[in-house]
Amino acid sequence: MTESLGVSVDEVTSNITIALRTRFGQSGQHEDLEEAISSDREAPEVLPVTHPDRSTSLNNIALALSTRFDKYGRQEDLEEGISWHREALELRPAPHPERSSSLNNIALALWTQFQYSRQEERGGGNFMASRSSRAATCTTS
Fold it and tell me: What's 47's DSSP letter?
């Protein structure tokens, strides 16, 4: 149905997930983030490996999982997000125009994982609270 209107299913799905993540950012409603992740997870099931938008869809899943990690501190979200970032990066070989974006995203996720593991080694503490306070300090300086 959407194809006959000149809009692909992956575009519609992407727009829905963007809207849900935006609403989550504004309202903080957990259900919006969960629905966005659920919707993002459908894209790789319908997009073939050769589809030009597949890497963007994989990146969107990873970013949504990163948002959930930032909000709730679930390490499995961070690890799964890194896996999706890696897969997206494989689909963006040099000189792909989005390769630098993928490299940046995976670097940030790996840096977060490193910081999280260091915090755990030091006896835990509240990683998310200390991360939030550092981010607040950075944005106000």
Answer: S
The b-or-e profile of 121-141 (16+ CB within 10 A means b, else e) is eeeeeebeeebeeeeeeeeee
Contact predicate 90/82, CB 8 Å? no
Alpha-helix runs per DSSP H in 73-98: 75-90
Q: Dump pLDDT digits (tens) for 18-54.
A: 899 999 999 999 999 999 999 999 888 888 999 998 9
Matching residue, tokens 């503490």: 125
Token pair for 18: 């963007």
Spell out where 9-82 has E strands.
Answer: none
136 Cβ neighbours under 8 A, 6+ residues apart: none
Nearest to 9 by CA among 49, 47, 59, 38: 47
Residues of the chain with pLDDT under 70: 1-7, 9-10, 125-141
Burial of 77 (0-12, 13-18, 19+ CB in 10 A): buried
